[in-house]
## 1
Amino acid sequence: MTFQIEALPYDAFAPLFALDDMALADAGARRMTVDHKPGFPCRVSLQDAEVGETVILVNHTHLDLGSPYDARHAVFVRQDAPQAAPVAGEVPEVLHHRLLSLRAFDAGGMMIAADVVEGAEVAARLDAMFGATDVSFIDIHNAKPGCFAARARRV
């Protein structure tokens, strides 16, 4: 079974970088300067931001299918982040060194399986979870802290 990890689109976040800090706060977001690496994983580039870079921390709705599991969580986005496009079956480096929570959902947004794995084991676990034909997608979260990381789809 092959999976495809998807990054979030930068266009959804680009307008935030033009806002001042007060407007960002009103939008529930915060501008930050990266002061250590790793620690600020960008959901658009699927890379850890470099020390000195500007990121926006914002609450992002990543599951909105009208199910009890609809969810939103904090994500970091780097300013002018290049759009990541991992090849099928590839796990971006940003996920390799983190403890990850995998949550498998059916097409209706109902969670049907979940697991916690070390990043080095995520590819094998994604393949195994997609072995169940009713799994439509798998949301990947950092287990510590539990921010949304990316979505994997069946290819």
## 2
Amino acid sequence: MKEIIDKLTCLNKTIASMESCTGGGLVNAITNVEGASEVIKYSAVTYSNEYKIKMGVSKDIIDKYTVYSIETARNMAFCISEYAQANLGIGITGKLNKVDNYNPYGDDGTVFVSIFDKDNNTYYDLVIKTTKENRMENKNLIIDEIIQKLKEILDIK
């Protein structure tokens, strides 16, 4: 993560996140790095559909595609980028091998991540299968994949 923070700082770019199933794990990984305050604009943990909608996510998108979809992750990424006026917005939604009684559809082991690059109006999407036995290991798996994707986007070798 330090390489990402350093590169964003060098590029004078910022980042924001709207996380659901990772519960703030990504922003925690970001803020564990010295200098993160130069790049992190805002982060929201929106576990419920209600709070995703309050943060600007379209109820129509949730209703049409479900909360567990790449379309919802994209809308989360876009909305948090706009809300925070950040160059990069990250949206994370999915299930970590647990049934959701409020949203019974969708695979219980699939997480959808979208990174919105506002400067290039481009989305980078990930669909991650959670394969670990416990929740913390699955969160770390997701965060690691996001870190790799950010390195790719920022051309960090």
## 3
Amino acid sequence: MIKEIKIDDIKELFLKRDEDANKGDFGKVGILGGSIKYSGAVKLANMSLCALRSGCGLVRVIVPKNISSSITPYLLEQTLSPYESLEDIKKSITGLTVVAIGMGWNYDEEHLSILEYILTSFEGNIVIDADGLNTLVGHLDLLKSSKAKIVLTPHLKEFSRLINLSIEEIEKDKINLALSFAKEHHVILVLKGHTTIVTDGVDVYLCKCGGAGMATSGSGDVLSGILAGMLGYLDYNLLTISGGVMLNGIAGEIAEEKNTDISMIASDTIHAIPDAIKKIRI
């Protein structure tokens, strides 16, 4: 099945919550990234804020200890978990529902070891983006052996690296290539673009929302944060992931209307998430 998803399809994901609810009902999300070369402090903070704005109960930002002071000023509702070793990371991800991984990395053998550990040991939901995807290149076998439920969020260039085809080749057959990849590697693939393709290897949802104002640094991080947040309390399936893509796109449209396609920045999308949820609920 190939279907263009609409707002009516995702309303059930954004129902009002029970008045007796508490934060423990909505999942614990870890945002794991950063490096001494590319601290990514603001982006990591934005991702964690997106996750909270999208409804999860708690967010833990997991970063190398030597950059923890650079991100602390940007965190309010989130908690910080610095690490110096893989053993520290093991402790940091204990009890989490979701781990989003890769922002602010560069390629490093240590990062490959971290990614391999999480993919083979963590049994929750994993969102891999940015340099997490680049670290995965040449190691796709890790996906098949994983105990986790995995979402990959590449743009075309990142997908090109993953499957070793040119962007021009991918453009000719995007849907089938995305389908085949998701099926072979047992993941939900979010192939970002003007029309974002979301597939679990069986069905495809096409998400046609957003605007030119979202073509700015950090927009992909916003989407990954939203997906991580929603996976904290919703089922891992094609509808949940497509709902996150739509929430991101609708928030982007609202932000662009306010800030213009020229002046809009990624954090404008974050601020528009509440209004996007209201729009979906109407």
## 4
Amino acid sequence: MNNLSSIIYTTAMASLGIGLIGCEGRRQVEGTEEITVEANDTRDTAHVVKTGRTAEDELEEFRTWLNRQSEKGDTAIRREWPAVRDELRERNARLEQKFDSLSASSKDEYRNLQDRYNRWEERQERRQLQPLQPAKTMEWQQQLLREYKDLDNVQPQNLREAYLTFMGEVRIKRRNWTQDDWDYVDYVYSKLNQRLREVDSKLRTGDKLKIRTLQAEYLTLEGAADTQSMLRGSSQ
């Protein structure tokens, strides 16, 4: 009986070893490295293939980067602008080189992001030449945020309401705003996002989801306004 148990145990362990080798043959690991294990009769070898970032990876990074930069406060952007501009241009150039390997939907998204990036860069360049007026930024903050104008004191449980107040004003008044007005609106939006980053860990999940929805709506309305502004400029 003992010999039979030993045989069964040995067979089971051998089968388990073969199964593990099969599972390890091709595995995606964190980052973009792909591990390939090659086995032959004489020896086992492990060959690591670094595939590099795909076009889809680059697109995801571009989206994340642009969102992070556009959410920064005006003072931070002004201080970092030359470096930010150069890096954004480099990321854009890398994606252009890989454009043909993107899926159809990703190509559309990239073109939309590219348009947004161009508008954002144009706005930042304009701000370097014509800085926002401090007194006027306070007026716009009062107008768009009302009781939440003092953002440094807005508590986590009230931040969702601050975004709702802001977007309510944007929806109602956006059609009458000039390009210069949108610069001030965007400044207030960046201040809101700055406060969001400060209290993010204290926000409820439901509030985070709602804020993301409101952010997406704002970017859509802002993009539409920029497009209309460019069309008016080209028709003059």
